[in-house]
Specification:
Largest sheet: 10 strands, parallel
Shape: rod-shaped
Strand order of the largest sheet: 5-6-9-12-15-18-21-24-27-30
Distance between the termini: 139 Å
Length: about 600
Amino acid sequence: MSDGSRDFFHTGLDVSRSQLAALQNGWNGALGFAGNSVVALNGNTYYVDASRPDDVSDGKSWDRAFKTITKALTVAIMRNDVIIVAPGDYDEGATLNITTQGLTIKGSDPSGGWHNRAMIMDGAGAGYHLMTINAHEVTIQGIGFSAVADNYDAIRVATTASSYKVAIKNCRFDGWSGEYGIYADGAFDAPDLAILNNHFRSWNTASIRVNTTRALVAGNIIYVLAATSGIQHVPTGGNRPDTAILDNSIYGANSTDIGIEIVGTPTEALFHLSGNRVENCATPVTLAKYTNWYLDNFWGREDWRYQRETCRGIANENKADGNLFYVDLNVATTGLDGKCWASAYQTLAEAIAVCATDIAANRNWARRNTIFVIGDELHEDITVLSEKTDIVGMGTDLSSYPRFMHSWAIAAGVKGARFFNLGFMNDAADAAVALPAGSHGNEFHNCHFKREAGGTHGLTIVTSANIKIIDCEFLPDGAAGLYTSAISLLTGAFDSAEIRGNYIEGAIGVTIAVAGFGSKLTNNQIRASGRVVVDTGLTTYLFDNDMISAAVCTDANWSGAITANPLLSAGNWLSCANANGPYPNLTVAA
């Protein structure tokens, strides 16, 4: 081929050397095609250097660079033009409005560090946004923004026109008193906005605010002032969907700051929050620390990396024992899922409601859920319980059990609820815990009842079978502040109740005001100002109890100190004001 043409990669296509060179340039992004001709897509390159004396030159090389970015924008009007900015301070005196499609403004070392960076600023504090972007495919790279006036932003996107595929990357944003670093939430959309690998600090409202279609906010480092936010995501229903906030590092002032503020509720399938690390923020994230669609975020030193494989996965296993839920009075955010300590519920009522639904709706009737609780003073009026649910206290800084300072007046009986290592303290003249009829199989283990605020009873129960009160204590409010009756089983039959191993103080220790079958008091220590036990039905067994009454005994049956059936009693010891000895005190048969 005398014209220098050659077989192109053995395809049979004859291509001249000049055509091949053009195609190779096209692969490098330099060329496009219009019909059979080759048309250049690369724009012009202009240079800006603040050290230059003026803007008189053409800006086409460093030797002929413009002094201001403002001047460069007047000539960079072709698609894909590039403005390269040398290190220096650029106080342009007004907003830089970008309206050229495909324009790139970048520092002379756009991938470099924060030193020797071109800094755009409002040095005079005149009050204007440093830059607005109202064109498609604009890239801002390796530029610094600083000294923004009050109520103004460094960059606003899509203020007068929709702006597709804007990228802001490797920039530095020092607000000092500015409102936002990047603000993209206006009447016009900015689809495919990318905010990547930037550094932010000291913004009065938030470093980044986005309400755009398909926004990507990734790899940024953000320092958050008190009472401000790092990232604000503002979903507008389905109008601007598909936002991803990924792998950002956010550091707060541990005051009233917010790491990631989600204004409204995004659509689950259209919002991705993953791999972010938030440290020392009072509120790491506002919507909820954990949901099914968050993955591998870290919400602070007191937290631990949440992973479905280790935390939620274990909690959600369909074990025979049911599911586990967690309550922590000290968590800052409500509405979490309660599946591990890192995402604990803030209130016990939340956990009970979920357990009740889980037992009933998921046909888990034969299983038993467990709620673990921590907190110093939990001020909750609990009125609802969950069937076949264990509530387990995990301790506080003052004692080995969390203390509920309000009374529990349960409205409807549930079966098989159990309570372990919990503290109950009355907040009014009532019972610390009152269970209604139908509370069959409820149990209290190692729980602590203390009279406060004129409380009348520690525990009252109405018409329920198989009650267990084991290894608990019922304490007075000082020496004279006794419960009227520490334990009262009232109204109706009480079959197979067991009161064992407790320490009990009250004006009356235990009241059993009804007849029952197979109920027993065993190995208790009971101290009363009046009668230690009042068993009206005379059907309760008393075995091996140590009992002290301040009352005067009037006969050999210890009347005045106890009302019980001596024929159902054995191995007890009773001391009263004028005697002490075994109860019952029976004559040995001849």
